[in-house]
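Field reference: sequence -> structure
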Amino acid sequence: MSTPTMRAVRLHEYGGPEVLRYEAAPIPEPGPGEVLVRVHAVGVNPPDWYLRGGLTTMPGETEPSVRLPVIPGTDVSGVVEAVAADVSGFSAGDEVFGLLRFPSFHGSAYAEYVAAPASHLARKPAGVDHVHAAATPMAGLTAWQFLIEAGHEHPSPFQDFRHRPTALDADTTVLVNGAAGGVGHFALQLAKWKGAHVIAVASGAHEASLRELGADRFIDYTKDRPEELVHDVDLVLDTVGGPAGRRFLRTLKPGGSLFPVLPGAFDEKEIAHLGVTVSSAQVRSHGVQLAELGRLLDAGTLRVAIDSTFALADARAAHERAARGHIRGKIVLTVV
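Structure field:
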C-alpha cells in the first residue's frame, strides 16, 4: 500500500529563498499526545529563515538536531483531522492554532498537514480567521512571556537566571523599539491592556497604525534618536536588538529594565552603575497562554497586523519579502 502524501515545503539543502522546494511529502501520523491538523495558514518567523540559511542548532542546544530534508515552520492555524488515543480536549473538526515544538526546528508547519502536540494548541477564536490566527503564536507568545508571564522555569540560553516580567499598570511607562513588527505590535497592545503609557519607536510610515493600536507617543527613529528624547522609562522592550541596544540603558529610571528580544552584549559595570536590569527570555510553546491571547483577540482587545500573504507554494516569495525588511506585522502562508 502506498504512503498517503501531501504538499509541503521542504529543504534539501541550505541557502537563500530559492532552496525552498514545494513538493510531495508523506502525511505525518500523530504520536502519543498529538493531533493531526489540516493546515489552513502558516505564520512566517525568523527561525524559518535561520534554518533555511543553515542554522541547525537552537540556542541552548549542544548538537544539531536537524536532518535533511526538513519542513520548516512553527506557527499554524487549521482544523483537527484526527487525535491520538491519549488526547482529550480536542476532537476532529475543532479549529485550532499553535506554536509547535518551540524552541526547536521540528515544527514542520509549512505543509498541508502537521502532527502537533496537543499541549501546544489552543482553540482558534471564532471571530478570527485562519490567517490572523496563524500570525499570532510565536510573536504573541514572545510578547506575552516577556511582558505578562514567563510561564516556564527555563532561563534564556544567554543568561543564568529566569526572566521575570515587570509589573505593568497606569504608573508604568514602556518603550517598545521595533513597535511595528510582529512582536512589537503585540507588545504595544499588551502593555496598553495593562494600562501602561506606551512609547512606540518605528519608522514614520507606521505612525498612524501604531497610534491606532494605542501608542501614546511615537518616535520616528529615522529622524530622531529615542535615547536623546526619552528618560525615566520603567521598561524598554527592544525587539530589534544588536549592538545598538545598549543605548536604551540610559532611557531607564533607576530600577528600570531593558528586555532585549535578541540578546546583545552589555557592559555589566554600566548596568550596575545605572541601577537597572537587563533580562531576556526564550519563547516556548504554551497552549494555555495562547488560549489567553485567543480570548483577547476574540474580544478585540488585541488586533493582528498582516504585512502580506502568500500561497504555500510561493514560500520563496514570502522569504524574499522578509529579506527586504521593514515588515509591518506578520507574513503568512495560506494553504488551499
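Note: The chain has two domains: 5-136+304-334, 142-278.
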